[in-house]
Amino acid sequence: MNVSKNKYFWYSNFEFGKTLRLIYLGYSASKPKLEKTMSSRLQSALPLKIFTSSQKIWFITLLIAQLSFVVYLSAGYGLTSLSEGLSAWTDFNDTAYVSGDTLGNSMYAVHVLLAIVMMMGGSLQLIPALRNRFRTFHRYNGRVFVLLACTISIAGMYLIISRGTVGNTLLHALTGFSGVMVIVASFFAIKAARSKRFDLHQRWALHLFLAANGVLFFRLFLFAWLMIFGTLGINTENFTGPTVLCISVLSYLIPHVLVQALWYVNKHRQSWSLISISSTLLLISASFAVGLLGLVVGNWYPNVIA
Ligand code: HEM
């Protein structure tokens, strides 16, 4: 076995390095300095725990939302296409089927049906236990995810240009940004993995994951807003207004700012930054939960049983 490639070797070396540093501090620093170091470590233990738990809560809430989305798409689009054909898809979305537009209809079908497969596969990539124990699976699943996410994004951009959708140009541009981000992040995630820069790979992979889930975030935030504030700030005639704009920014841009923030927090681990990011993640998780309830009760379930 090549020892240098064994992760436990690196881990134990890292731990060994840390121990050495503490011993060094013990001998060279004055006692108050050592005490200060130890107490700041103890102080950051609780924020670190809160940070770890908030990441788990965010991920589990998202996983439940993804599962529900997949069930809705499979039961709605999937089953309807088998029983009644693609033309019945207009029950779910006015722009889903246009008679005579074979290319557009195929693009819509590719867009929605591949989303069902992509949605779940992506989350498996983020689970450390799976990533570390089943590396070959991680590699192949990652390639499939990249392929699906890029194909879905290209089909989505085709649909928005050829068929249009609700909202104004700014909303379309923000959704388009998410599609471009999927392609850019895929490129850099693969490049970093090939050059074995795994820290950079992880960061780009997270950008990719969040960009590919932007459309789900949009739905969750929108329904969370509707549940709490109703149609405040939304022009229901043409689906524009400050609320729609804020929700698009929150779904398509802010996640990428959060990736950078997470990276900073992980690197510096100051208590204030750990608490700030944990509160943000918990607030997002709560919005996801409320939004999911609204989506299932007010949109997905009635759409499927109608
Ligand atoms: C890569 C992640 C994406 C996923 C998983 C995804 C998923 C979906 C799903 C499931 C639908 C059906 C909606 C429903 O019935 O509720 C849909 C519709 C649509 N998507 Fe996407 N999408 C993605 C990206 C994009 C992008 C980047 C664009 C355009 C720039 C786009 C444009 C559209 C359009 C125009 C529709 C038609 C329905 C509408 O008017 O909203 N999608 N998408």
Name its key features.
11 helices, binds protoporphyrin IX containing FE, mainly alpha, 306 residues, 0% strand
Taking the alpha carbons of the first and last residues, their distance comes to 60 Å
Elements, N to C (H/E): HHHHHHHHHHH
Strand content: under 5%
**Major sheet:** none
Hetero groups bound?
A: protoporphyrin IX containing FE
Q: Which of globular, elongated, flat, extended, rod-shaped describes the shape?
A: globular
Total of helices:
11
Kindly give the count of domains: 1
As a percent range, the share of helical residues equals over 70%
Structural class: mainly alpha
The count of DSSP E runs of length 2 or more, i.e. the number of strands, is 0
Describe what you observe in this structure:
The protein is mostly helical. It has one domain. The site of protoporphyrin IX containing FE (HEM) has 23 residues, from helix 3, helix 5 and helix 6. The site of protoporphyrin IX containing FE has 23 residues, from helix 3, helix 5 and helix 6.
Present the secondary structure layout.
Elements: H1 7-28, H2 31-83, H3 102-126, H4 128-133, H5 135-162, H6 169-194, H7 198-212, H8 214-229, H9 242-252, H10 254-268, H11 271-305
Helix pairs in contact: 2-3, 2-11, 3-5, 5-6, 6-7, 6-9, 7-10, 8-9, 8-11
This protein binds protoporphyrin IX containing FE.
